[in-house]
Write a structure and sequence with these properties.
Blueprint (H helix, E strand, L loop, with lengths): L1 H25 L1 E2 L10 H34 L19 H31 L7 E8 L2 E6 L4 E4 L1 E5 L8 E7 L4 E4 L7 E3 L5 E5 L5 E7 L11 E7 L1 H12 L9 H9 L29 E2 L4 E2 L2 H9 L1 H4 L12 H13 L2
Helix pairs in contact: 2-3, 5-8, 6-8
């Protein structure tokens, strides 16, 4: 057990070091501060959070003040007879009414404010022609589809900047196995992804950047490593990204030998590469995997070295993941990795 724990700790430290090195280069917002929102839903939830904290802080101060006052006022005095029992008070209608009515009033205020914010966020009009995306939770990665744009990718979601010049983005959240939870703290609150049910969430990000998120509902062994990125960019850059992602791969820019090796393996049963015989649906779409920032659902940067380690034995890097060890030879591994890197 101890070696296994040590191994997982080493993997975690390696991931942290690698991601920290790439964060400064990519401009990612690595500290997902819920008190610094960049979209309307997150701002509304920040405001109600501050309101609740203010009320609870006032209660804390009032209770502490009463305790300190009681300790000072009723402390033992030198002239008190230690053998004399203090006067016994068996009830006060005024105090009992106060400590019943005031908490009830506070509870109803919090319920009312929370219901109002939920109604405002869920019932808001996201504006004309929003971008629509379908996010599907898997153990342990996020499938991303833009049905109206014909785009399919994984774990990295691109959306346009909203506001006066750009549309909001609507997410339809689903799951194919267990309950997951979609959460990008600086853009919106948590929302569960439930099997056989579609929940909806919208965001209108105001500033470009890469916002980090994760699954917020325990969903199995690798729950902590089910990460995602939302890249917010100007509308023209988003449309250019969508056009590039929609396109099938260009056979003239591929590693032909690598493609032949990849297609000869059982990888094609789980993964899809548009424009080739590979049309699997169980794993992430790999059509443009070479253009992604990370692999393994955001665990590690997408470099040839990391990709090679992942393809060679995903179980070693992410124990419990459904991708098996294919037992590839060195030549097969080199060919597959070279091919995947070429899929831009």
């Amino acid at each position: 057990m101890a070696p296994a724990i040590l191994s997982l700790l080493q993997i975690g430290l390696l991931q942290a070091a690698l991601l920290q090195g790439t964060a400064a280069k990519s401009g990612e917002r690595r500290i997902t501060n819920i008190f610094e929102p960049f979209a309307t839903p997150a701002a509304a939830e920040r405001d109600i959070g501050l309101f609740v904290m203010l009320i609870t802080a006032a209660i804390f101060v009032a209770v502490c003040a009463l305790l300190i006052s009681t300790m000072i006022r009723f402390r033992r005095k030198p002239e008190d007879d230690e053998r004399q029992e203090p006067p016994q008070v068996y009830g006060s209608n005024q105090i009992e009414i106060a400590w019943t009515f005031i908490p009830l009033l506070i509870i109803f205020v919090l319920i009312g404010v929370t219901a109002r914010v939920i109604a405002v966020v869920q019932g808001a009009n996201p504006g004309p022609a929003p971008v629509r995306a379908r996010i599907i939770g898997h153990q342990w990665w996020f499938e991303v589809q833009f049905p109206e744009l014909g785009v399919a990718t994984a774990n990295e979601i691109h959306v346009p900047v909203a506001g006066s010049s750009g549309p909001a983005t609507m997410f339809q959240l689903e799951s194919v196995d267990v309950i997951h939870s979609f959460w990008v703290p600086q853009l919106a609150g948590k929302l569960d992804m439930v099997p056989n049910r579609a929940n909806t969430l919208w965001i209108d990000p105001t500033e470009p950047g890469t916002y980090l998120g994760n699954c917020a509902e325990y969903c199995g062994t690798q729950h902590a490593n089910m990460l995602l990125r939302v890249t917010v960019e100007p509308k023209d850059e988003f449309l250019a990204w969508a056009a590039a992602q929609k396109a099938s791969i260009n056979v003239n820019t591929q590693d032909v030998e690598g493609r032949q090796v990849f297609e000869s393996l059982s990888c094609v049963n789980c993964h899809a590469v548009r424009g080739t015989p590979a049309n699997g649906k169980f794993g992430p779409d790999l059509t443009h995997v070479g253009s992604r920032q990370t692999i393994a659902s955001g665990m590690i940067p997408n470099t040839p070295q990391n990709l090679r380690a992942w393809v060679n034995d995903a179980q070693e890097m992410k124990p419990g993941v459904l991708m098996p060890n294919m037992k590839l030879t060195k030549q097969e591994l080199d060919s597959v990795v070279s091919y995947l890197v070429s899929l831009k």
